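Hey, I'm writing a tutorial for new members on how sequence and structure tokens pair up, and I'd like a real worked example in the thread rather than a made-up one. If someone can provide the structure for the chain below, I'll link this post from the tutorial.
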Amino acid sequence: MKQYISILFLFVMLPFFGQQKLTLEECQTAVTKNYPLAKQLDLYTQKGNFEKQAFEKGNLPKIDINAQATYQSDVIEFPFSMPNTSIKPLNKDQYRATLDVQQLIYNGGLIKANSELKDIQIQNVKQQVNVSLYQLKTKVNFSFMTVLLLQEQNELLSAKKELLTNKTKEVHSGVKNGMLLPSSEYVLQAELAKVNQTLAENNLNKHKEIQNLEKLTFTTISREIIFEKPTEFSTNQSRPELELFELQSQQLEVSKDLLSKSKLPKLNAFGQLGYGNPGLNMLDNSFQDFYIVGLKLNWNVFDWNKSKNEKASLEVAKELVQTEKETFETNIAIQLNEVQTEIEKLTLAIQSDTEIIELREKVLRASDSQLKNGAITSSDYLTELTQLFDAKSAQKIHEIQLHLAQLNYQIIKGN
């Protein structure tokens, strides 16, 4: 029996040399690169660049061409006449075409402030995408670890199947020689059929979870690939939500700066080159060319405290962001405490599983000797074998649950 126990351990611990392996890190990388939402990061960058370029065009001269033709019911006339002078009245049909140029000289840095605000707005929406992508990691973890659990359970089942097959051959020989009843063989064959049934169910569930991973990562995963158990659980990163709160606060600060700059005076230079009838000389009733150059200052010195109220609103918004951040951090602390407790419970459970397995192995060795001597039936032996397998299976489940809890701890903490 000792060699069969060794075979069981061999099947459980045998490494899969020469076979392709898939890591959790590879799945996490794939979901952040291939998931459709990830494409928005580049699109938002392009959108922000175009909008910034549009803002910066405000520093360039503004050039307009205008033309008009009018007919009016009356024109200016002198109510008196002057001797030796003949002043013709203006035509009622008048024409004008102008080229107007306006160049911004000073606006308090309003264009630059708008560009900075657009920058921070794009960073905000991109970080919101990162938050959504980060939340997918929990789904990837669950599917990956479920496949890993089924994979390791199948290894145990295969080892048990090998052990049952060998034991069935032994019992068959005893039945053939009249040393054991035929029912002893039937019991082992029934258990062997049950193992095959469980293997088939596990393979179907494994196939389903692999399909879920394929949909999340937008990759094709071979059904023969080996899922590698993660070993690293440390991280120095932080939750993307915390960075999002910081960016939201920065956006509100930039908005306040933009409000301050919008109240500063604006100075523009302008020029107009034109041709029309009449021109600038209203007494010359003919087509003339003309030009005008100058400076224009605009300063809204009183806005009925509109800017003050808007700034106060932005300050309240900053406080709201701060309360959301504090609430988030509190919830994170509670979740970390719960998961840490779960990790400690599972660690203790695995230690107990090891002790139980050692005792069950001793019992199974004794049962194997008793079965050979006819002291117990194959049903009694099978009961002990099943209890040993259940203990090993429970330990595998606890190990996978511990890995998943450790992964979730790092996801909650920030990884």
